[in-house]
Amino acid sequence: xxxxxxxxxxxxxxxxxxxxxxxxxxxxxxxxxxxxxxxxxxxxxxxxxxxxxxxxxxxxxxxxxxxxxxxxxxxxxxxxxxxxxxxxxxxxxxxxxxxxxxxxxxxxxxxxxxxxxxxxxxxxxxxxxxxxxxxxxxxxxxxxxxxxxxxxxxxxxxxxxxxxxxxxxxxxxxxxxxxxxxxxxxxxxxxxxxxxxxxxxxxxxxxxxxxxxxxxxxxxxxxxxxxxxxxxxxxxxxxxxxxxxxxxxxxxxxxxxxxxxxxxxxxxxxxxxxxxxxxxxxxxxxxxxxxxxxxxxxxxxxxxxxxxxxxxxxxxxxxxxxxxxxxxxxxxxxxxxxxxxxxxxxxxxxxxxxxxxxxxxxxxxxxxxxxxxxxxxxxxxxxxxxxxxxxxxxxxxxxxxxxxx
Length: 405
Description:
By secondary structure, this protein is an alpha+beta fold. It contains 13 helices and 20 strands.
């Protein structure tokens, strides 16, 4: 098939963090870039990050950063040898996006507004004469043999020397993130691994008794384990919120992928670390008062409920078995989980284009020459805390710099 002369050096499909970063870096090297975005404006999903404040990155040391990824940490070793999260943070600062650190090493724009980040990208791209077309939903990739030549969008064929696919996943489809990247590369022989919620709230199994007691209660830096077949398959120490439906907050949401990957999984909290108990007290004090000295009343009721200990009992009237039951619950506060929120309500997806089909040093497809696949379209994911936006931007930077070689 004969294709026209390329109109652009690079077409970027998708204006999320991966696509925007790749367009910016490529334009800095003088390449003529076109960005195609299906929505009316850029960065729709990014605008929701961090509750609208945009948790853009994380300033953990790179080795620790990679340990907080649920998928793709080994694949990213090559990229991180060139451009890691700390280098990314420096790049953003040096280009005028001021960042501030919060708990758990999370980084936000100083203005605490996600729109500020999108505006920063828009200004940077405008200054480098990057062409941006919104309301432009790519219908198919134009391929000659095993070489991409451009895209078809809104009935128009546009040609370029390179195409970067940065369409995101199918999490939060109301932002336009509908998994179109998977569809576009399927005819080219790329396979998509199983998709599942990777960062999402959890809902209780029906048999969890203290639901009404705990809803609305939040715990800070509590040790959380995912237990399956009496083995710990995942653990994290982070914040947690009990809701009317289940568990939310960064700790439980980070457990979503492990919940989906293992049958009959349940959550186990170690409350003893955040609520140290001391039973060596006057014998006439009631057990409920001992517990409420270190924890909220509702949590005390829940502990005693699960331990089957009467809250009105005085310490002097309790048996050894009662103390042991409370200790067991404190060290292993178990919550049966019915599942996670569905993919369309998940913050991050586990799964995507298989990494063994991608060159780690450039993010170029091994199947189609001059096609690079970036960010969440790939089987890359991390916990909440700035990891996912950071690895998306890192993939964009690495792909863009590969153009100069």
